Every structure is written in C-alpha cells, then in structure tokens.
Amino acid sequence: MTKQTENDCAGRGAAAGAADSSAEIAAALVARGVEVVAPQMTHFSPDVDPGRFHRGAVIHPGCRVRGSAAAMGPGAEIGREGPVTLVDSQLGAGAKIASGFADRCTLLDGASAGADFHGRPGTLMEERSGVAHAVGLKQTVLFPFVEFGSLINFCDAIATGGTGPRDHTEVGSGYVHFNFTPHGDKATASILGDVPRGALLRSPRIFLGGQGGLAGPRRVAFGVVVPAGVTLRRDVETEGVLVRGGSGPSRPAGGDVPWDTGRFSGIERRVANCVLYVGEVLALRAWYACARAPVMSATPWGAACLDGATRRIDEILRERIKRLEDLLAKSGAAAPPELALVRERFAAPPPAPEAGSPAAAAISALLALGEEDWTRRVQSLPESGAEALSAWLGRVRSLLD
User: Fold this and answer.
1) Is the distance from CB of 179 to CB of 155 less than 8 angstroms?
2) Residue 393 CB partners (closer than 8 Å, separation 6+)
3) What mean pLDDT value characterizes the chain?
4) Distance between CA 377 and CA 389 in Å, rounded?
5) What domains does the chain contain, in order, with CATH numbers?
6) Of 207, 234, 236, nearest to 220 (Cα)?
7) 35: which strand partners?
C-alpha cells in the first residue's frame, strides 16, 4: 500500500469516526427531548456535551454545533430560516437564531437574532433583546428589550435604555458603529445610556435613526433621539434631547433641542395618513374578492394563492388598525370618526359594485376575457371599463362604497 493510499484510508476513517460521533450525540440529544429535526443533516463536533441541551430545544437541518461550552435551554431554537453554525455559544430559554453564525455568543432568555446573524466573541444579548436580519455584533452587550433593525454592523458597544418590549432603546436599519480609526486602533467603544441605571430597566429609551452612524468612542445619554441619516461624531450627554442634523465635532451641544416623549408632533397628519392607508388596503381587499378571486380559483394552485393573498391582506388590515389604535392611546389624541367605519368595514365582507353599475359591467367584461395571464387580461380591458373600476375602488378606499 502506498503512502498516499494509507493517507486516504486514514482520512476516510477519521471522517467515518466523526460521522459516528455526530450521530451518537444527535441520538443522545433526542433522548433528552431535544428536537433534532434531521439528525443526518446536522453535525455535532465530538466535544459537544448533550447534557447542556434541554428538553424542548429545536435544531433544524443544516446546523453545525461545535464546542464543549455550547448550550441550549428549553424552547431555544436555531436554524428555522437557514443553517446556523453555533460555536461555544449559549442560548437561554426561548432564545432563537434564525440563521447565521455565532462564535462565543450568549443569548439570554427570549433573546432573538434574525437571518444571517453574524455574532462574534464578546456578544451578549440579554433577555428579550433582538436583532433583525443581517446584523453583525462583536464585543457588544444589548440590555433587555433593546432592539436593532436590519443590515447593521455594531461592534464594541453597550446599549441600554427602556423599560419593556413597548418602550426600548432602538437602532434603526442600516446603522453602523464606526469602531476603527485611520490610525489603525480600536480604542473606540461607545456606550448608549449607562450600566448603573440601565440595568434597573427604568431609564428613558434611546433612538438612533436608520441609515446613520456613530463614530466611536461616543457617549449617548438616555432619552436622546438621533434622526435618520445622521452620523454622530460627538458625545451627547444631555438627556432627553433631539439631535439636529449636522452633527460634526464642532457643532455645539446647544444646537440640540429638548425632546418630550409625551408630545406627538403632527399627530393629525399621522392619523389621517393611517386612515388613508387602511382605505387603500380595503380597496385592495375588494379588488381581490370581486375581480381576482373568480380567475385565481380556476386552478388548484391559484385557489391556494388566493387563500394566501386574502389572509395576507387581512393580516395587514388587522396590523394597521392595531397600530393606529396604539398611536391614539399613546398620544391621547381623539379617535377620528373614520376609525369606527374602518372597523365596521373590516368586519364585513368586501363590498361589490352595485348591480347594473358601470363597475359591475366592467367586472363582467374583465372575467369574460380569455387571457390566462392576469396582467394582460387587465390591460386588455377597454379604457371605459378601467375608468369605471378605478372610480369604484376609489369610493371603497374613501369608505364611501
């Protein structure tokens, strides 16, 4: 036997041994009540300790778990949206990583990371904190309830502030903590709020608007609001202020203005726009019910998609009405008279054009067209019919039809 052949045999033997070890660990986990959805599609390194994984934890196919320190509490879940590589990381009860990579990260009870998470050593997410998709963290601590949006790179920082899941420090999508200087050093750690008060969960929230940045090392006080698109290059140590645009290092702190969390500016416009949005969705709902449904239900797959689309539209309506009601409750503004009508229209079946009306005739003409492609069918409708349907949908949108 040649040396190469010996090496090949040794390699195959090692691979087989690793596969056997992974299968044994998977079996031990299943015996403990861990749901390993597809053991043959999941890899566990030989040093993984099944005793650190608890009943009710879920590991989806494609995940790789490595390291003797790896642990998952009851209800913890990895890989629901794609593979997760978990290296010496711990998830508390109910903590979740949708997909991505976590190397020496700790997520306490109820913390969650969205798809394409990239967690590196020094990442600590405390209870019920969360990040959406494509977020990178390293040497960063998120206190309870703190929320980050999507597409964020935030390393070397501590984020505190807020009192609960509806009142929490938030960093908007597309945000960057700049933690590397032209001199090549990283002595740039930043703090949002502070630990002594933030740990007690009684401090005002901090808001950093999306598509912005923080040039570390910076301190940002509790209650500070930074508008979207601003790169903050100075400390903001006065609590409860709105940072005005142009945040260069020479801009005096006096340029900021007080921020009253109890004051809602432009509330009438916001409420009016919310009602208008709900009207748009009600019009879409009527369009599906009267025009699209007869065509989509002609095939099994179309019927399935129709059912799904109808559910999605109802979910959107329910969410928008709830958010409007929440805004009214928080601001103390009077509910507009249209809100009762919105609730009534949502509870009732979608309206149809009045029999004999131009809109009803246009619906009949649309359904009689022989085009299988929906877009071509709609574009084949005579202009008079399109105008009649547009006018009818406009009345539905305005809550008049």
Assistant:
1) yes
2) 283, 286, 287
3) 90
4) 14
5) 3-258 (2.160.10.10), 267-397 (no CATH)
6) 236
7) 58
